[in-house]
Amino acid sequence: MAKMRLDKFLSSAGAGTRSEVKDLLRKGAVEVNGIVCKKPEQKVEPSEDTVLLFGERIAYEEVAYFLLHKPAGCVSATQDVHEKTVLDYLDEPQCKDLFPVGRLDKDTEGLLLITNDGDLAHRLLSPKKHVDKTYYAEIEGVVTEEDIKAFCEGIDIGDEKKTLPAKLTVLEVAPRSKVEVTIQEGRYHQIKRMFEAVGKRVVYLKRISMGPLVLEDSLKKGRYRRLREEEIAQLKRGC
Ligand code: URA
Fold first, then answer.
1. pTM score > 0.70 for this model?
2. Beta carbon of 104 within 6 Å of any ligand 1 atom
């Protein structure tokens, strides 16, 4: 395996952000092959060198976070016999066990977080955490003030409980209305079922943000990028 900087090794292994890791190094919390090392730039060979943090061995497994602009026509799964999956868009052979955090329908586009950090994914998906997810949608029919009020009050979509309050903003009223909707949960087909409950049909759906993550226009469909350190830290702080 190629040598890498000690601070990168530690932050990739989930010990903290690069600046948190530098702090740990300064405090003398890290040993490399039995010797305290305070230098972030020290090179280590992950499969040969023994790195200890507060006396605990750090096994090297890259924890990675990617933001994919999911195109329509692929499924949010790690494998599928018949369909193309969202993982088919990533070329990261060094990152093991990647999976999508939550699901977008096959015909839904937009922001999808892909990671191998099971703990963070679990927290992001927890119904208790209420992580905001905003969608741009096009709706057959005219979206009304009553719809906005109904979304705001929570909607009965046939589950045990009504949905939590959702924010519906109308961008353009037309036979095909353009709207933005922010929901706090991630129930199965939630946006489609909420519009169905008020007698309307979603004809186009794209997720544009999730918590602190925003899908930028420059990231084209089918492309992905690594999350920035600040985004990872914000995600972790938010849940
Ligand atoms: N709501 C839906 O109906 N579909 C999605 O893919 C995401 C949210």
1. yes
2. yes
